[in-house]
């Protein structure tokens, strides 16, 4: 089997995979449910945020997390300059937040009743069951995204409250409650 670098990314791709289109790949990935997070950060022009369904816990010691951001994202330049971020795990009651952060960048932070600022400067969204503040450790360009690795420095977890919020999931191009996937 031979490999050739992808013309725009330089990633080496085996010849037997060259027939997969972005549309085919995207269609298959739509059938993998993922938790919905919103990543927020501060920059000189103001607060920045975006949805990310690629969140992962990487390590317990040290506590490392990761997510991806598309190179075409309106938040990419701010992410490249960020020292820290806050990753919010959305609850099933927060579809409106997920939709807001999928809109144009100018509309994401217009409602001041939805967020406040941490003492470290990052925007934090109200009502999220869990959020993690992380210091950016690595930015790794790969394919058409950048892989972001962060060191968790603070965790806010309200899941012990009753009733605990179930996570918001993204599956087949739509937001779901965990129980709605059973239908």
TrEMBL record:
Keywords: Oxidoreductase. It holds the Pfam family Flavin_Reduct. Residues 29-177 form the Flavin reductase like domain. Signal peptide: none annotated. GO terms for molecular function: oxidoreductase activity. SMART domains: Flavin_Reduct. Its EC number is 1.-.-.-. Belongs to the non-flavoprotein flavin reductase family. PANTHER family: FLAVIN REDUCTASE (PTHR30466), FMN REDUCTASE (NADH) RUTF (PTHR30466:SF1). This is Flavin reductase family protein. The lineage of its organism: Bacteria, Bacillati, Actinomycetota, Actinomycetes, Mycobacteriales.
């Amino acid at each position: 089997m031979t490999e050739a670098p992808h013309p725009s990314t330089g990633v080496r791709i085996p010849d037997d995979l060259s027939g997969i289109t972005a549309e085919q790949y995207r269609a298959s990935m739509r059938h993998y449910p993922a938790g919905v997070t919103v990543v927020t950060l501060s920059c000189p022009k103001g607060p920045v945020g975006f949805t990310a369904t690629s969140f992962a816990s990487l390590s317990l010691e040290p506590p490392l997390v990761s997510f991806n951001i598309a190179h075409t994202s309106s938040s990419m330049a701010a992410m490249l300059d960020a020292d820290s971020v806050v990753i919010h795990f959305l609850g099933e009651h927060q579809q409106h937040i997920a939709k807001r952060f999928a809109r144009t960048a100018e509309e994401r932070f217009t409602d001041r009743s939805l967020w406040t600022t941490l003492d470290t400067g990052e925007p934090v969204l109200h009502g999220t069951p869990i959020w993690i503040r992380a210091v950016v450790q690595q930015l790794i360009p790969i394919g058409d995204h950048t892989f972001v690795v962060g060191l968790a420095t603070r965790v806010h977890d309200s899941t012990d409250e009753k009733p605990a919020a179930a996570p918001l999931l993204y599956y087949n191009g739509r937001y779901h409650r965990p129980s709605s996937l059973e239908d």
